[in-house]
Specification:
By secondary structure, the protein is α/β, with parallel strands linked by helices. The chain has two domains: about 90 residues, Arc Repressor Mutant, subunit A (Orthogonal Bundle); about 200 residues, 3-Layer(aba) Sandwich (D-Maltodextrin-Binding Protein, domain 2). The strands form two sheets. Strands 3, 4, 5, 6, 7, 8, 9, 10 and 11 form a nine-stranded mixed beta sheet that branches. Strands 1-2 form a two-stranded antiparallel ribbon. α1 packs across α2, α1 crosses α3 and α2 crosses α3. It is elongated. About 30% of the residues are buried.
Length: about 325
């Protein structure tokens, strides 16, 4: 039976042309090397080497085996290295999937802050709609999903998540809010003021059906009797922002996304706090075991959360 070790020894022997020198290079005895070559010859059914007085030379069959063995050994060694690299990469990589908006309002700031404590980790972020991200999580092709969930749990109900879900675990990382915004008029007031809306419906820029922020917003819109006329929609939050900047209507956007627009007075609030949607930034994982670095991140974030809670308790009791 042929094996990789015997092929490698055969290649070394063809190069060194000496059993003693080849045995030394292969870290095996001369008799052990000889047995391996004999095994190759039995497998081939023909002599592979001519054992001369001064040197060992391959036969015609040996030269043909040498050419093939060189390719085979190179390919298999490369494959083994790639397996080891993939295994190491999997242990070091922390894979996130998240709706597109998280790249703008979360990851851009969060990953650089984590880098100092996770220098050996490799972060990767894949963006898609929330349902697709949750599918990747359940299939094991991502470690974590990061998304914005509303306090009324409309998003959780939509995707079938609950507090007693044994298959998933959640960790709250921070807070965000959807705020109604529009361009200002010449006087600096909202061009579409929801607080002074009359009988005419206000032009409304909505989220496409697959965008999970729209699910949270829908609960608020059902609770308030607002006169809105949806003119345009977009699946990406930044698309709605550009529509709002173009003066096409009111859009409910993450406050972090429009903070600079507020400062530059490109956008203003179109209503007060009662028409804002409080959100939780949530990290979601499966209950299945994680890779080394991904598990370390989970423990690290739990410790931060616990430390923050302890600090708050100390402040309240002192």
């Amino acid at each position: 039976m042929i094996d990789l070790v015997s092929l490698k020894d055969f290649l070394v022997l063809c190069q060194m042309k000496s059993f003693s020198r080849a045995a030394e290079r292969c870290h095996v005895s001369v008799s052990g090397l000889s047995r391996r070559i004999q095994g190759l010859e039995q497998w081939a059914g023909t002599p592979l080497l001519v054992r001369g007085k001064s040197a060992v030379e391959p036969t015609d069959a040996g030269r043909r085996l040498h050419a093939t063995a060189t390719e085979v050994v190179y390919a298999l060694e490369g494959l083994r290295k790639s397996f080891r690299h993939d295994a190491l990469d999997r242990q070091q990589r922390i894979r996130f999937s998240a709706p597109h908006i998280m790249s703008a309002v979360f990851f851009a700031d969060w990953i650089p802050r984590l880098h100092s404590d996770f220098r050996s980790a490799r972060f990767s972020v894949e963006s898609d709609n929330l349902l697709a991200c949750l599918t990747m999580l359940d299939e094991g092709s991502t470690d974590y999903v990061v998304a914005l969930f509303d306090e009324g749990d409309a998003v959780c109900r939509r995707v079938g998540l609950s507090a007693d879900d044994a298959d998933h675990q959640m960790l709250e990382l921070g807070a965000e809010r959807l705020v109604p915004v529009c361009v200002p008029n010449a006087a600096g007031a909202p061009a579409y003021d929801l607080r002074q809306a009359g009988s005419q419906p206000v032009s409304f820029l909505g989220y496409a059906e697959e965008c999970h922020l729209g699910w949270s917003l829908q609960t608020l819109l059902q609770r308030h009797a607002l006169k809105l006329h949806q003119v345009h929609e977009a699946s990406l939050t930044d698309g709605l922002r550009h529509m709002a900047l173009s003066g096409l209507g009111v859009a409910w956007l993450p406050e972090t996304l429009v903070r600079e627009d507020f400062s530059a007075k490109r956008l203003v609030r179109a209503a007060g706090p009662t028409l804002e949607v409080p959100l939780r930034c949530v990290l979601l994982r499966r209950s299945a075991p994680l890779s080394e670095q991904a598990h370390r991140l989970w423990e690290y974030l739990h410790a931060l959360k616990l430390g923050s809670a302890q600090y708050s308790a100390e402040v309240l009791t002192n």
